[in-house]
Design brief:
- By secondary structure, this protein is mainly beta.
- The protein folds into two domains: 160 residues, Galactose-binding domain-like (Jelly Rolls, Sandwich), CATH 2.60.120.260; 153 residues, Galactose-binding domain-like (Jelly Rolls), CATH 2.60.120.260.
- 0% of the residues lie in helices and 43% in strands.
- The strands form five sheets. Strands 12, 13, 15, 16, 17, 18, 19 and 21 form an eight-stranded antiparallel sheet that branches. Strands 1, 5, 6, 7, 8, 9 and 11 form a seven-stranded antiparallel sheet that branches.
- A hairpin with a 2-residue loop joins strand 2 and strand 3.
- It is an enzyme of class 3 (hydrolase).
- GO terms for molecular function: allantoicase activity.
- It comes from Microtetraspora malaysiensis.
- This is Probable allantoicase.
């Protein structure tokens, strides 16, 4: 079910990403590069600087050089692909672009970043197009820099990859083992008709139904489910099943099971053990359940009955040392 485009966008604003610097943003603000959702365009909408664009746009450069923008990844990790989207930029897109990345500890200022390496060589762009470039560098990065030659506009930049958190921030603490920002990921799902199951692992609270996971209405007598690979092997003490914003389409009930994938295959039904038996849920509610099973697990499976969705899934516990 997974290609690079299905991996999380490590730079997304709602995941904590930030455009921390840019050489120029005369026509359109740099912050638009990492906004969620597709770029929008309203023709003949003019401000003091010309047509309003939902993207980052620089001035027309009249001297040698090029423009650039630096993004601090909200979720540091291994980058697998970068998308440079010139949506709606037709007569003002950059003809070429490249991408660099670096790793930094702590919270340096933009001018303190060093050790930049090229992860996407200079490549040709066209207008109103989403260009995807594969990245093969296996290192963990915290920042990226997009370079456009010589100038122009980019609507969005997506940085798809695998989250690799700083282990110093997790060791010995109670953490959310199902959090995307801690390295958890959805590895299987029965249905994602309305919205992606990865949403249940996202940071923060869901603001609407689209920011959670929602399935189609089942007519076959079965139930929907998803399996999450946890941040690492650990034990879970508290489970939070959040149906916020699901007013008329929340599941009637849910159950939670775990498995230690270090010693059993995920398709071995007998290896799964119950963490939370089938339990009634309420609409638009954050349900919290204390769990009494201290067996280690690497994966969790949540079954919802019969269908519906969840806004968030939180599994609070400890990583094994």
């Amino acid at each position: 079910m997974r290609g690079h485009g299905r991996l999380p966008d490590l730079a997304l604003r709602t995941y904590g990403g930030s455009v921390v610097a840019a050489s120029d943003e005369s026509f359109a603000a740099k912050e638009a590069l990492i906004r969620p959702g597709r770029p929008e365009f309203r023709p003949r909408t003019f401000g003091a600087k010309g047509q309003v664009y939902d993207g980052w746009e620089t001035r027309r450069r009249r001297e040698p050089g090029h423009e650039w923008a630096v993004v601090r990844l909200g979720l540091p990790g291994v980058i697998r692909s970068v998308v440079i989207d010139t949506a709606w930029f037709t007569g003002n897109y950059p003809p070429f672009a490249s991408v660099e990345a670096c790793t930094a500890d702590g919270y340096p200022a933009p001018d303190e970043l060093t050790g930049w390496v090229e992860i996407v060589p200079r490549a040709a762009l066209t207008g109103d197009t989403a260009h995807e470039f594969e990245v093969t560098d296996p290192r963990r990065f915290t920042h990226v820099r997009v370079n456009v030659f010589p100038d122009g506009g980019v609507a969005r930049m997506r940085v798809h990859g695998e989250v690799v958190p700083d282990p110093r921030l997790l060791s010995g603490l109670t953490v959310d083992l199902a959090a995307l920002e801690n390295g958890a990921r959805v590895v299987a799902c029965s249905d994602e008709f309305y919205s992606s199951p990865e949403n249940v692992l996202a940071p923060g609270l869901a603001r609407n139904q689209a920011e959670g996971w929602e399935t189609a209405r089942r007519r076959d007598g079965g139930n929907d489910w998803l399996i999450v690979a946890l941040a690492g092997p650990g034990t879970v003490a508290v489970a939070e099943l959040d149906t916020t914003n699901l007013l008329y389409n929340a599941p009637g009930a849910a159950a939670l099971r775990g498995i230690d994938g270090r010693s059993a295959a995920l398709d071995d039904e007998h290896a799964w053990f119950t963490l939370l038996p089938e339990t009634r849920l309420q609409p638009d509610t954050r349900h919290r359940f204390r769990l009494d099973d201290d067996r280690p697990l690497t994966h969790a499976r949540i079954d919802i009955f019969p269908d519906g969705g969840l806004a968030r899934l939180r599994l609070l516990g400890s990583l094994l040392s």
